[in-house]
Amino acid sequence: MPHWLTGSLTLLVILLNTLIGIGPMLLIGLLKVAIPLRGFQRRCSQAVMWIAETWAEGVNRTINRTTAVRWDIRCEGSLNPRHSYLVVSNHQSWVDILALLQAFNRKTPYFKFFLKKELIWIPFLGLAFWALDYPFMKRYSKAHLARRPQDRGKDLEITQQACEKFRDTPVTIVNYLEGTRLTAAKHRAQDSPFRHLLKPKSGGIAFVMAALGKQMRSLLDVTIVYPEGTPPGFWALVSGRVDRVIVDIRQVELAEDLFAGDYANDPRFRIQFQKWVNDLWQAKDQRIAQLHAELYGRPAGTPEPARTASDQDMAARASSGD
Q1: Which of 219, 233, 240, 248 could bond 252 through an S-S bridge, CB–CB 3.0 to 4.6 Å?
Q2: What is the DSSP pairing of strand 216-225 with strand 115-116?
Q3: Is 48:29 a contact under the CB 8 Å cutoff?
Q4: Residue ranges making up the domain that contains 179
Q5: Rounded Cα distance, 257 and 56, in Å
Q6: 97 assigned to some structural domain
């Protein structure tokens, strides 16, 4: 079939799948709010998660049957849907989210993102995000914070409050540490010390780890690579113009001291935690280079040439603006 027809049929099936699931999901979400009994609400959350997982399975099967994309998923160790996980991943395209659905659906608890507050107004999907208890974040610009310094730190407070809801049930929380999708322009503007990545932000992940504590068994470090070079868009995927996506998953055991500090009020712990995040990102940058070398026999073209910096300087540059 021509690409436009493949894409149109794929989108139609995904839309029908979404419309079938959205009604029951919203009804259960409303019942959960209307009947504030802890046990009942927990069962409602489980039912909503089951609907979401069924929807994701439908999306996965549709894409895999209408396109020839190969999901090259590599995972260290086994995954357990009864355990809680924190997923950190590089971010290049909306296809990244579909790659996570392929890698984790029904292998871990259904994952949750921290979303921009404006996304709640997206027809159907915004209400689905609400029913799924996705935390909605409001980002403040530096200019806004200069005018209203009392708003500083509110997004991290929301992070902590949202994670309190997840203490009673297994959850997978996805955090894009870069905060935005990678582009060559953003890479240059940041003067990023990483060849393949933007600077990571450590505040959100610190609050997630503090809130979930030992409930979270391990961190899943996900590296997504598109062999075509340029990250594809959503339409390119559903229209069958993506041949392969590599999803490399590394399980990282978390040291006890990463849960013990006060990121907001302890400068020494904050520096220590930022260094840990920076080291994690440095290893990911090297992993991307290895995957490119595996694909092409040499490192692929990158947004910016590599830079050299001392560990102290790189940690400061990678964590600035957090």
Answers
A1: 219
A2: unpaired
A3: yes
A4: 69-319
A5: 36
A6: yes
